[in-house]
Amino acid sequence: EIVLTQSPATLPLSPGEGATLSCRASQSVSSYLAWYQQKPGQSPRLLIYDTGNRAPGIPARFSGSGSGTDFNLTISSLEPEDFAVYYCQQRRNGITFGQGTRLEIK
Amino acid sequence: QVQLQESGPGLVKPSETLSLTCNVSGDSITNSNCYWGWVRQSPGKGLEWIANIYSGGTTQYNPSLKSRVTIFLDKLKNQVSLKLTSVTAEDTAVYYCASRLPGTVMTSCYFDNWGQGTLVTVSS
Q1: Would you say B98 and B48 are in contact if contact means Cβ atoms under 8 Å apart?
Q2: Over the stretch A49-77, which tens digit does the pLDDT of each residue have?
Q3: Pick among B47, B59, B116 to test the A interface (most A CBs inside 10 A)
Q4: pLDDT tens per residue across span B37-55
Q5: Which residue in A94, A60, A62, A92 sits closest to A75, CA to CA?
Q6: Pairing state of beta strands A45-49 and A53-54?
Q7: Distance (Å) from the C-alpha of residue B70 to the closest C-alpha of chain A?
Q8: Is residue B107 over pLDDT 90?
Q9: CA B112, A49, A35, B3: dihedral to nearest 10 degrees?
Q10: B21 CA to chain A: closest CA distance, Å?
Q11: Closest residue by Cα to residue B113 from B94, B124, B98
């Protein structure tokens, strides 16, 4: 089973600042890595798939990068609605999710 | 637009079997070349993948749950169903049905379509 480790667990930032969230895989997942956003009481929302492709309707301030075992989700300038929990997910071997990073308002 | 609606018992007793159904509307479950999946989330916790199934019947299971889980399709009812046996309190969670939207530019299989989830509590 491929384990995904996200860091940091919590990221306190202010609107307008940039954010970088990390996801490390226990073995290579090639480019089969996605990012989801989840707000309280809501279902997850796909942001990025195959490492760097934005899902339809996702704002350009969200971008993904990486390969193999190390991946990042970058939010260029935080909007108030971006404060949420973010999960990475691999589909290289079955499916696993990271434990999540909570992006909170500082 | 394809919509997913989960349904379940709400409350299940320990050691019993949990049965969940995902009703798919807006498209046939046989039209997708991607999988249909179930994901759960325990209260205050992260996402845990349970199982996937392709329209042709090929299945994938989370190794940690494989011995207790069965996913299957009801093509006549256009539903994706899940059975989880021998439940314990650790199976208390919101259970989501998820899929890839038809006609998306995304050729890979990721979950860009989610149901609202159904809460299942395991308690005597």
Answers
A1: no
A2: 999 999 999 999 999 999 999 999 999 99
A3: B47
A4: 999 999 999 999 999 999 9
A5: A62
A6: antiparallel
A7: 15
A8: no
A9: 0
A10: 17
A11: B98
**Which one, of A1, A64, A12, lies nearest residue A35 by Cα?**
A64
For residue B63, give the amino acid letter: P
Contact B57, B80 (CB under 8 A): no
- Chain A partners of B112 at a C-beta cutoff of 8 Å? 46, 49, 55-56
* Contact flag B116-A43 (C-beta cutoff 8 Å): yes
**Binned average pLDDT, 10 residues per bin, chain A of 106 residues:** 97 98 98 98 98 96 97 98 98 97 97
Q: Are B111 and B2 in contact (CB under 8 A)?
A: no
User: Quick check: B35 and B109 in contact, CB under 8 A?
Assistant: yes
pLDDT at B32: 87
Cβ <8 Å between A98 and B46: yes
Nearest residue in chain A measured CA to CA from B53: A94
Rounded CA-CA distance A84/A57 in Å is 18
Chain B closest CA to A57's CA: distance in Å?
Answer: 11
Tell me, yes or no, if B109 comes closer than 8 A to chain A by beta carbon: yes
Contact B47 A95 (CB under 8 A): no
Encoding tokens for residue A45? 């929302």
Residue where the block lists tokens 């637009």? B1
